[in-house]
């Protein structure tokens, strides 16, 4: 019997059109997508006008995307989808450092820097020594771990957001651990900043009564042979936005100490050990 489209049998009408010889994973995902999408439209009783607003919003989201800007990822971030995908795909043993969202400002190929070196090139901000050890679940140091770090500058912008103002690679660097697993570098105590809010996602946040700020954080990617890749941040513990991060990236275990250092040129010290999960 032909599955003509009706309100009651809408899911069966659409899913029944799939050919029998398609990729099984495509079948599984699309079947669920249609099922939940139709259930949402029915439960919300979406009006014609609301549907048109949604189509206009998605059109604007696509139009603002470019090499430098990915508004769909920002949409995913602000709706908690990026963190959910990250959580599902990075389940770890207790004690292993947790993942959080990568964000759009990572740049591959940051210069290799010697342990203890300064990564801040614009001379702005309060200096901070970041240091600790990369270890396995038994607390054995991991040699040869590659640590890729990046943060905003003292004014809340990444170097790639201000290519004409900030030096290239400002507040970025990569390090490789020795046999003691230790890492150390000098950056700045990061500051909170708004995610790009001048597009459709910013408009959406405004309609929802939400602010666009992220609490201050230092980004890390830590990789080592035989271990799961760790994509994470450490957060500054006294930040006003910890409980309302625009992209839901905060986890309690990622809040790092920031201790004032007296004497010498450095103002802050932030110790943090990274515990890698085996593959
Ligand atoms: C970031 O931390 O760099 C970031 C993450 C998600 C959206 C925007 C920025
Ligand atoms: Fe960031």
TrEMBL record:
<feature type="domain" description="Catechol dioxygenase N-terminal">
    <location>
        <begin position="23"/>
        <end position="96"/>
    </location>
</feature>
<protein>
    <submittedName>
        <fullName>Catechol 1,2-dioxygenase</fullName>
        <ecNumber>1.13.11.1</ecNumber>
    </submittedName>
</protein>
<feature type="domain" description="Intradiol ring-cleavage dioxygenases">
    <location>
        <begin position="122"/>
        <end position="278"/>
    </location>
</feature>
<dbReference type="GO" id="GO:0008199">
    <property type="term" value="F:ferric iron binding"/>
</dbReference>
<keyword id="KW-0223">Dioxygenase</keyword>
<dbReference type="GO" id="GO:0009712">
    <property type="term" value="P:catechol-containing compound metabolic process"/>
</dbReference>
<dbReference type="InterPro" id="IPR007535">
    <property type="entry name" value="Catechol_dOase_N"/>
</dbReference>
<dbReference type="InterPro" id="IPR015889">
    <property type="entry name" value="Intradiol_dOase_core"/>
</dbReference>
<comment type="similarity">
    <text>Belongs to the intradiol ring-cleavage dioxygenase family.</text>
</comment>
<dbReference type="Pfam" id="PF04444">
    <property type="entry name" value="Dioxygenase_N"/>
</dbReference>
<dbReference type="GO" id="GO:0018576">
    <property type="term" value="F:catechol 1,2-dioxygenase activity"/>
</dbReference>
<keyword id="KW-0560">Oxidoreductase</keyword>
<dbReference type="InterPro" id="IPR000627">
    <property type="entry name" value="Intradiol_dOase_C"/>
</dbReference>
<keyword id="KW-0479">Metal-binding</keyword>
<dbReference type="Pfam" id="PF00775">
    <property type="entry name" value="Dioxygenase_C"/>
</dbReference>
<keyword id="KW-0408">Iron</keyword>
<dbReference type="InterPro" id="IPR050770">
    <property type="entry name" value="Intradiol_RC_Dioxygenase"/>
</dbReference>
